Amino acid sequence: MDRIVLSTLVHRDPETVFETVRDFRTYPNYAPVLDAVSADGDGGIGTRYDLDFSWWKLTYTARSEVTAIDAPERLAWRLREDVDAAGEWRIEPAPDAAPPDVETASRLFFDVAYDPHTADPNAISLPRFVSLDRVIGLVRPRLYDEAEKVVRRLVADIEGETRDVELTVHEQPGS
Questions:
Q1: Are 66 and 74 in contact (CB under 8 A)?
Q2: How far apart are CA 62 and CA 51, in angstroms?
Q3: What strand order describes the sheet that includes 74-79?
Q4: Burial level of 75, CB count in 10 A (0-12/13-18/19+)?
Q5: Cis preceding linkage at 116, omega within 30
Q6: What does DSSP assign to residue 127?
Q7: Nearest one of 94, 121, 118, 95 to 108, comparing CA atoms
Q8: pTM of the full structure
Q9: Is the C-alpha dihedral spanning 153, 158, 162, 167 positive or negative?
Q10: What InterPro entries would the database entry show (predicted)?
């Protein structure tokens, strides 16, 4: 099982941060490989999201489901099929960590665990003569880079401007 855990300080209160991470439909703004998100549900526990990805010569729809919500501290999800993966966003109040010119802050955690070797080879339309093992080898190192980009872009969206976001890496594949 591989795991990515990143955190950063967001210059907003936990409620504001939570409302942004809760809205999966905005995620294509944060991940260029994510083309579209469709929802079946009201955003609560049990809501299912189809996330349409395209990268290189591959297209894939990840079918996810919200498994837990403890607003404004936590939102958990899992993939329903094709690969063993689950994750969560955690938000902790961090007002004492706010810079002097910022009213308050929160620490945002992105935490995902996945087993790339559980991927269903029939779920992805692979180009001719390309093996699933090769695709896993190509995608695996990119997942961490994409997670960093998503968190940075999410912070810019929450705060309304781009800034140099310091990420703390708690765990990454190979660590």
A1: no
A2: 5
A3: 34-40, 48-55, 58-70, 74-79, 84-93, 106-115, 2-10, 167-171
A4: buried
A5: no
A6: P
A7: 94
A8: 0.90
A9: negative
A10: Polyketide_cyclase/dehydratase, START-like_dom_sf
* Contact indicator for 152, 163 with CB cutoff of 8 Å: no
Task: Please give the chain's pLDDT, 175 residues, in tens.
Answer: 999 999 999 999 999 999 999 999 999 999 988 999 999 999 999 999 999 998 877 888 999 999 999 999 999 999 999 899 999 999 999 999 999 999 999 999 999 999 988 877 776 666 677 777 777 777 777 788 889 999 999 999 999 999 999 999 999 886 5
For the chain, give the number of residues.
175
Read off the tokens for 158.
Answer: 């929450």
Pairing mode of beta strands 34-40, 48-55: antiparallel
Tell me, what DSSP letter sits at residue 41?
A: S
Six-digit token pair at 18?
């939570």
Give the residue extent of every domain in the chain. 2-171
Encoded tokens for 32: 């260029």
CA distance 106 to 71: 14
* 54 vs 66: CA distance, rounded Å: 22
* Beta strands 2-10; 106-115: pairing state: antiparallel
Given a contact cutoff of 8 angstroms between Cβ atoms, the answer to whether 50 and 38 are in contact is: yes
The one-letter amino acid at 173:
P
Q: Are 74 and 90 in contact (CB under 8 A)?
A: yes
